[in-house]
Design brief:
mainly alpha; 11 helices; Vanadium-containing Chloroperoxidase, domain 1; about 70% helix
């Protein structure tokens, strides 16, 4: 309970997000919901989401490398949560092997053309769930765990949602994919963090910066 209260600025809006998106998935058909979500495209949006979506790609691992020079603990928690959530998502993808929007619409609604962005390749398989969304929610939740200011926790939530939206905007995933991806990312990250928080890990309070300065001395 203390954990939830401490990070309520992330968890409370997230719960509302899950309830709203779940309602949309239940009461709207898959194709119509996707077309409605992906139809709000602009030139600026095309450029922004094409690159911003990578926050759920390789960017967390670049951040982990940088954080090694600040504190091992944050880098370690980020690495464990990214690898663990990523593994779960990849297993789920192979189990369900759902078609992505480009394949789904080509097979079921061939007259409908999805919005395409120059330089953005549209994948056809392993749609469920969204790996980028999972990684983004796991990434920003960990940042919240190590940030004291609560208003930033809410900002992190918004940034994670934007990654999820980008996957639909780019027609890489359906809304259900991002919903389930976010649930995997948040739930597994919270569980792993609570488990790791109980471990002493005294070594984790150091950093590569300490190692470098010690050598210079």
């Amino acid at each position: 309970m203390k954990h939830f209260k401490r990070y309520s600025a992330f968890y409370v809006p997230y719960i509302l997000f899950v309830l709203i998106v779940t309602s949309l998935v239940i009461f709207c058909d898959k194709a119509s919901l996707h077309l409605w979500m992906a139809s709000h495209n602009t030139e600026a949006g095309d450029v922004f989401f094409k690159y911003y979506t990578e926050v759920g790609g390789n960017i967390p691992f670049f951040v982990i490398a940088i954080l090694l020079f600040y504190k091992y603990r944050i880098a370690f928690v980020l690495l464990v949560t990214q690898l663990s959530t990523g593994l779960v998502v990849q297993i789920m993808k192979r189990i369900w092997d759902e078609p992505r929007p480009v394949k789904y619409f080509a097979e079921n609604f061939p007259k409908i053309e999805l919005h395409k962005i120059a330089g953005a390749h549209l994948y056809s398989h392993n749609s469920f769930p969204s790996g980028h969304t999972t990684a983004a929610f796991a990434f920003f939740l960990v940042l919240a765990f190590f940030t004291q200011k609560r208003w930033l926790h809410f900002v992190y939530f918004i940034l994670a949602v934007l990654v999820g939206f980008s996957r639909v905007y780019l027609s890489q995933h359906f809304v259900l994919d991002l919903l389930v991806g976010s649930v995997v990312g948040v739930s597994l990250t919270a569980i792993l963090f609570l488990w790791m928080e109980k471990k002493p890990m005294k070594w984790a309070d150091g950093s590569l910066r300490d190692v470098v300065f010690r050598k210079k001395e």
